[in-house]
Every structure is written in structure tokens, then in C-alpha cells.
């Protein structure tokens, strides 16, 4: 409850976070509240967001991109040297069975169904802490109703207005909310080269999560199952360690620390590899209609590089 209290309680929390994490100040209260509402009432916020900030045509365009990137991913699987034939075939089945969730669930455009999401929840205009307690009680009751019930794998569990993308191993699905299907990552009106250099790299990145240290423990139906043999696991870890060592050798000179190569570097590199193959196939397929194919390819990488540089500047500020 401490994050939701004010005054001396909030100050003590700030002091603790400063010692533990080096954070010297909390975000402004309004920013915390916006984030809290989106996390706890994500579907309601998402319904408001998509009214003015999401073109329905974006779903169709993003779907086409996912199909092209999946095709490139399967091509790279065929060339994979560290998987044996049997494991490679199961991996292809998992990649083809991977579901995609784009933008938002249909209930956001249905006021009746959306209202049912919050039946039993009471919110007051001027009782913040009471509202928090009501939300906690509401969430606990909903979770208890799910106990021993079949899992609804079609249900969205991600807020549509969040700027992020996800892979869910227990559902074998990739999720691209409306919040990330925005410039600079994506726009229905962007040329394909910019979209592939933006959200395209993210799509490739999320697909590879299904085959990393965690994702490989789940099969195509999202069940916990070991489908890699020990020889494949060993070869994977040997190659992964090369990338970890490479990135861990880079030093951030401003702070004198090495990069943590165990983070998302492998998925980022894999996402770039998938995107590179997708672009080659795409430019070859549309070579007659593309006036400057090399320019299209260059724009993909320039857009991705520019986006990463901007993120670096944000995180370092």
C-alpha cells in the first residue's frame, strides 16, 4: 500500500528507492495516476485511446507484415546449424502455430461487453485510497472465479494503450497493442521500409522469444514441455554465450560499466536477422515496382538505428 500513500509515507519510500536503486525523485503524482489507471483499468483506457489514435486499417497492414516475417523466420530455421532435423521440424510447427494479437480485442468497440468487464467495481470521485482497495478486492474476486476453470487462451491480458510488445509462452502468442502501433514504430501511412525498420524488427524480436531459454520450455499449444534434446540445448547455449561475451565486452564510458550481455541482446540480434531476410525477400518480390530497392533497404536500417539511438538518449537522461 505504500506507493498509494502520501506525505511522510511517500517520502520514506523515495528515500528507500534512492538507496536501493539510485532514484532520487518520484514521478509527478498525475503521471503515477495515469499509469495506475491504465494498468488497473486497461480495457477502459484502451477503448478511449483507439477512438482517436488507431486506424482500423493498421490491423490488416500489420497482419501482412507478420506473415512475411514468419516466412523469413522459417527460412532461417531451415538454415539453422545447431538444431537437429527433428527439433527443427517441431520449431517450424510452433512458429506456424503462433497466434498474433494486433491492436486491441473486439470488446473495446462493444460498450455492453466492455461494461461487463467492470461489473461489481465501485469508483468514487474523491476517495483515492478507497478506490485502490476496491480495485484490489475486485481483482482478487475475479481471479478466484478463474480457479480450476479452463484457461481462456483467447482473452487479452495486455492493456491496448501500452507502448510495448509481448510474447506469451503459455499461449504461444505475440501481442502488438495499439499503443506500439504508432509512429515512430509504425504507421499505416508510412512506406513499408520504415514500418519494417520499426515494428518489423520488434515482430522478429518477439517471435524469437518462443525459442529462447524460457520459450523453448513450452510447446506450440503453450504447454510446459521439453521439446529440445540435450545436444540442441548445449549447442544453443554455446552460440548464445558468444553473443553474451560480445555485448558484455562493450563499455559505457560515461559511467564506466559494461553492458549486461545477458539481457535482450540475443533476441534483438535475432530480430534484426529475421528482418534482414524479410527485406531481401520483399525487395526481390516487388523489384519491378520499387524504383530504388537499395534505398528501401537502407531506410529500414537507418530507421531502426535512429529509433535505438533515441531510446538510448531517453534512458540516459
TrEMBL record:
User: Which GO biological process categories is it annotated with?
Assistant: protein processing
Q: Which SUPFAM superfamilies does the entry mention?
A: Metalloproteases ('zincins'), catalytic domain (SSF55486)
Limits of the Peptidase M13 N-terminal domain: 2-105
- What domain of life is recorded for the organism? Eukaryota
Pfam families membership: Peptidase_M13, Peptidase_M13_N
Gene3D superfamilies linked? Collagenase (Catalytic Domain)
Q: Which cofactor does it need?
A: Zn(2+)
Write down any Gene Ontology CC term. Answer: plasma membrane
Q: List the GO molecular function terms.
A: metal ion binding; metalloendopeptidase activity
Q: Where is the Peptidase M13 C-terminal domain?
A: 164-262
The entry's keywords: Hydrolase, Metal-binding, Metalloprotease, Protease, Zinc
- Does the record carry Transferase as a key word? no
Q: Transport: present as a keyword of the record? A: no
Please state which protein family the record places this protein in. Belongs to the peptidase M13 family.
- Can you name this protein? Neprilysin-1
Q: Which organism is it from?
A: Trichonephila clavata
Amino acid at each position: 500500500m505504500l506507493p498509494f500513500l502520501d506525505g511522510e509515507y511517500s517520502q520514506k519510500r523515495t528515500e528507500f528507492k534512492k538507496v536501493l536503486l539510485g532514484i532520487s525523485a518520484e514521478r509527478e503524482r498525475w503521471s503515477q495516476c495515469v499509469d495506475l489507471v491504465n494498468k488497473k483499468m486497461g480495457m477502459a483506457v484502451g477503448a478511449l485511446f483507439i477512438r482517436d489514435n488507431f486506424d482500423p486499417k493498421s490491423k490488416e497492414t500489420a497482419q501482412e507484415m507478420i506473415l512475411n516475417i514468419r516466412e523469413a523466420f522459417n527460412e532461417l530455421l531451415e538454415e539453422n546449424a545447431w538444431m537437429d532435423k527433428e527439433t527443427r521440424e517441431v520449431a517450424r510447427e510452433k512458429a506456424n502455430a503462433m497466434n498474433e494479437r494486433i491492436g486491441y480485442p473486439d470488446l473495446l468497440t462493444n460498450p455492453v461487453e466492455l461494461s461487463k468487464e467492470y461489473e461489481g467495481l465501485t469508483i468514487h470521485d474523491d476517495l483515492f485510497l478507497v478506490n485502490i482497495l476496491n480495485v484490489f478486492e475486485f481483482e482478487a474476486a475475479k481471479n478466484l472465479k478463474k480457479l480450476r476453470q479452463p484457461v481462456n487462451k483467447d482473452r487479452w491480458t495486455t492493456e491496448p494503450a501500452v507502448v510495448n510488445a509481448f510474447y506469451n509462452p503459455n499461449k504461444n502468442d505475440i501481442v502488438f497493442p495499439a499503443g506500439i502501433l504508432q509512429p515512430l514504430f509504425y504507421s499505416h501511412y508510412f512506406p513499408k521500409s520504415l514500418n519494417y525498420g520499426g515494428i518489423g524488427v520488434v515482430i522478429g524480436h518477439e517471435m524469437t522469444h518462443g525459442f529462447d531459454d524460457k520459450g523453448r520450455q513450452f510447446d506450440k499449444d503453450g504447454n510446459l514441455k521439453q521439446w529440445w534434446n540435450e545436444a540442441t540445448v548445449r549447442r544453443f547455449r554455446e552460440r548464445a554465450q558468444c553473443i553474451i561475451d560480445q555485448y558484455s565486452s562493450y563499455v559505457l564510458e560515461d559511467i564506466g560499466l559494461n553492458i549486461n550481455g545477458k539481457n535482450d541482446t540475443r533476441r534483438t540480434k535475432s530480430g534484426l536477422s529475421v528482418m534482414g531476410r524479410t527485406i531481401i525477400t520483399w525487395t526481390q518480390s516487388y523489384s519491378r515496382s520499387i524504383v530504388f530497392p537499395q534505398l528501401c533497404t537502407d531506410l529500414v536500417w537507418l530507421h531502426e538505428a535512429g529509433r535505438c539511438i533515441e531510446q538510448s538518449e531517453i534512458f540516459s537522461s
